[in-house]
Design a protein that fits this description.
heterodimer; A: 268 residues; mainly alpha; flat; B: Rossmann fold; seven-stranded mixed β-sheet; six-stranded mixed β-sheet; globular
Chain lengths: 268, 520
């Protein structure tokens, strides 16, 4: 079991202008671009958005290797989704390839292509956000800039750190079950062992989380009073400009889609 | 209460020592019927250093949580986490209110250091982790970093502010947690077995740091610890608690030794079995398990955790595997136990141990075949619990190998008796105390009567009584002809049990030493 690379903490050249931007600015761009692309499924809007994102990529400080390592999950979703749409999507226009029930038409091919582009264009800013942002800095931003409740944000941050320990615990539990003589009977017995193991993992995780909560409380966490911040988190002028850039990107892509006549409001 | 000369205090870290006063204090967790503690009468003078003793289940941790102001009896409609009686005061203020007031004032009255290093690190960077408490106490942003720096210097922390906490060892994590506590300038340190999960080197460093912190700040402490001896020279006074009761003894540090002697068979008598080593060494029959050139690599890691191990495990002999943390001891144990395949070399069972199994390589045995041949006791007992009651837990193995019900019942009853668990037969294993869980986990393995036992840190965090019982049990098993392998940091266990000692460093076996030479 390998830990999800998507959450592996920051990598790449963190001095690049977009990489070192405020986490909330990066989050805002991701949300704006996602929103623009969630409104419509069309290849032009998604394609233009993706092209502009790729143009901005050199300023994100992510080399091709880092990008591949963090972003493969998105690609692994985008291409099969497009392929399935092309094969089984609603047929329209000229038939390009026909094999019984499986047909690729001009219409389904275009739909498949736009699905792939859309998933990539939505996913890429998210990959950049996660790959260039320290979770602690993101939490600071969420609590101080967006004013989300500090107790909630910091608890989530602390819990995230405990997640990493679960894989190790799971390994130990698996070995311990073998040592108890379990796991070598039919699928039903195996399933029962598995359920027991999941339950044990939850109990252990809960216990550790309880200790962590005690340690945090003993250091004054959650006492209800005011809180100060060791790492002040503020949006700079450059961050605001960056957010504007993201908005422009979304507007440009949408405009291109509308002008090309492919833009259609999804929830219509 | 002894007088201490006024220590030199650095100007940066100053604490105001806190006085404790408990009168008829008791606490019952809302999930339990019995009181964890009751009728506690106790006074601790400002700056006094108290060692808290008592068997597991005596409510020592509960008293510390109470002093830390973490127990919430609730008010009116709010249920809280339990029931409180009597009073527990810090400088005349109820402990819980004292905590809340301190948070508002920016300086903690008490600082709590717990046992599990992994569960005390809050944030990803060392500096941030220390700053966390200061932020919660609303210390002005400008003062936070100087205080973080001072606290890290106070525990001689070897890394910078940006160092990732994920790369710290257990001992370093405990030092970081200590710095996090120190930064808040508590007047009373509450130490709940802070070294129980550390190897001897890490434990010794942490003890020194605690001593330095107490001397530099003038703060007092209430310490809970099973391994008492190394702490005694920095303790003013010993208080002994009784399960469900209050203070049953209170006196000078020497009381700790008397207490240990009264409660358990003295360790000395356990050590005194010199004759057996000679007898066991003369054996010379075929090895139960022949280990040749074995290396073990853990999932996802490039480098072998341990390599080039050659061993013969004989019936009726005990091998202790020692070495610092990360030396590959546990990985080797998993390979000997047939739980992971060696990445190089072979582990081969004797014909006698193999019996009817299809192969002589234990890692290829089916789980059912494994349990009657090799038993493994994990460091964390909870990892191997799979049943709802202690009795069921002991019956799992015998049932798996298809023993008749009468035999299963007989073995279960015998083990419950032998391990002093009979009154807990229907209790859920997860709710037992640490010592009880350890005894049960050993019992689950004995139930299928394996010829080889592999134990990972069996005495870790155990009180003196469980320790002595466990050692006696293992000695019995060896005398009955079982082979025992114990991975351990516990020098006393090595002295008491080992016929042979294998020392690992950085994954490599050091020159083998027979236990006798080691003891001499």
């Amino acid at each position: 079991m390998s830990a999800p690379d998507l959450l592996g903490g920051p990598v790449g050249t963190l001095t690049a202008p977009i990489a070192r931007a405020h986490p909330v600015a990066k989050l805002a761009i991701s949300l704006v671009v996602s929103l623009a692309l969630l409104l419509t499924v069309d290849g032009v809007t998604a394609g233009v958005a993706l092209a502009l994102e790729l143009l901005a990529l050199p300023w994100c400080g992510l080399g091709p290797r880092a990008l591949a390592r963090r972003g493969w999950v998105i690609a692994a979703g985008a291409f099969p989704a497009g392929l399935v749409t092309a094969l089984y999507g609603v047929d329209a226009g000229r038939v390009l390839i026909g094999l019984g029930p499986v047909t690729i038409t001009e219409g389904s091919l275009a739909a498949g292509l736009s699905i792939t582009l859309r998933v990539l264009a939505i996913g890429l800013p998210g990959v950049v956000l996660l790959a260039t942002t320290d979770p602690t800095d993101l939490a600071d931003g969420l609590a101080q800039v967006l004013r989300l409740p500090a107790t909630f944000v910091l608890s989530a941050l602390a819990a995230m750190r405990l997640f990493g320990l679960l894989a190790t615990e799971w390994q130990a539990l698996t070995l311990a079950r073998r040592a108890r003589g379990l796991g070598d009977d039919g699928p039903l017995g195996r399933l029962r062992t598995l359920f027991g193991q999941v339950f044990a993992l939850l109990v252990l995780a809960l216990r550790r989380a309880t200790v962590l909560a005690t340690a945090m409380e003993a250091r004054g966490f959650g006492a209800g009073g005011a809180r100060t911040w060791a790492r002040p988190s503020r949006l700079a002028r450059s961050d605001v400009l960056l957010i504007l850039g993201g908005v422009l990107l979304a507007v440009a892509a949408t405009t291109a889609g509308v002008l090309a006549g492919t833009w259609r409001l999804l929830l219509h | 209460m002894s007088e201490r000369p006024m220590p030199d205090r650095p100007a940066v870290i100053l604490s105001r020592p806190v006085a404790v006063r408990a009168r008829g204090w008791g606490w019952r967790h809302s999930t339990r019927r019995a009181w964890a503690l009751r009728g506690v009468d106790l006074d601790v003078a400002p700056g006094e250093r108290v060692l808290l003793l008592g068997p597991s289940g005596a409510g020592k941790s509960t008293l510390l949580a109470g002093l830390a102001g973490l127990l919430d009896p609730g008010t009116g409609a709010d249920d809280g986490t339990g029931d409180e009686e009597g009073e527990l005061l810090l400088d005349g203020v109820p402990a819980r209110r004292a905590r809340l007031e301190a948070v508002a004032a920016g300086t903690a009255r008490t600082g709590l250091l717990l046992q599990d290093p992994l569960a005390q690190t809050v944030l990803a960077r060392c500096g941030d982790d220390v700053a966390f408490g200061l932020e919660n106490h609303a210390v002005a942003s400008g003062q936070i970093w100087p205080r973080v720096q001072a606290a890290l210097r106070g525990v001689a922390f070897p890394y910078g502010l940006q160092h990732p906490t994920g790369r710290l060892s257990g001992g370093e994590r405990q030092r970081l947690a200590l710095a996090g506590v120190l930064a808040l300038r508590p007047g009373l340190m509450l130490l709940d077995e802070p070294t129980a999960m550390l190897d001897p080197d890490g434990a010794s460093i942490l003890r020194d740091q605690v001593r330095r912190v107490l001397e530099a700040t003038g703060a007092g402490c209430v310490l809970v610890e099973h391994r008492v001896a190394p702490w005694l020279d920095q303790i003013d006074r010993v208080v002994v608690l009784e399960p469900g009761g209050g203070v049953i003894a209170d006196g000078p540090p020497s009381l700790a030794r008397d207490h240990a002697r009264r409660r358990v068979a003295p360790h000395d008598s356990v050590h005194d079995h010199g004759g057996r080593w000679g007898a066991a060494r003369a054996g010379g029959q075929e090895a139960l398990l022949a280990v040749r050139g074995v290396a073990v690599r853990r999932a996802g890691l490039e480098r072998a955790a341990v390599q080039d191990v050659d061993l013969d495990l004989q019936a009726g002999r005990a091998l202790c595997v020692v070495g610092p943390n990360g030396a590959g001891k546990s990985s080797l144990a998993l390979a000997l136990a047939g739980l992971v395949a060696p990445s190089a070399g072979t582990v081969t069972a004797s014909a006698g141990l193999t019996g009817t199994a299809r192969t002589r390589h234990p890692h290829r045995w089916r789980p059912r075949e494994l349990v009657t041949r090799i038993g493994t006791v994990f460091q964390e007992p909870q990892h191997q619990f799979v049943a709802r009651t202690c009795a069921d837990e002991l019956a799992v193995g015998p049932r798996r190998i298809g023993l008749p019900d009468a035999e299963v019942a007989a073995r279960t009853a015998e083990l419950l008796e032998r391990l002093r668990l009979a009154p807990l037969a229907r209790a859920n294993p997860f709710t037992l105390s640490g010592g009880e869980q350890r005894r049960l986990s050993v019992g689950t393995v004995l139930a299928t009567r394996p010829q080889l036992l592999v134990l990972d840190e069996p005495t870790f965090g155990q009180d003196a009584r469980t320790w002595a019982e466990l050692v006696a049990l293992l000695q019995e098993l060896v005398a009955e002809g079982a082979a025992v392998v114990a991975v351990t940091h516990d020098e006393a266990l090595v002295q008491a049990l080992a016929d042979d000692v294998l020392e690992l460093r950085d994954g490599l076996p050091q020159q083998p030493r027979p236990a006798q030479e080691r003891a001499g």
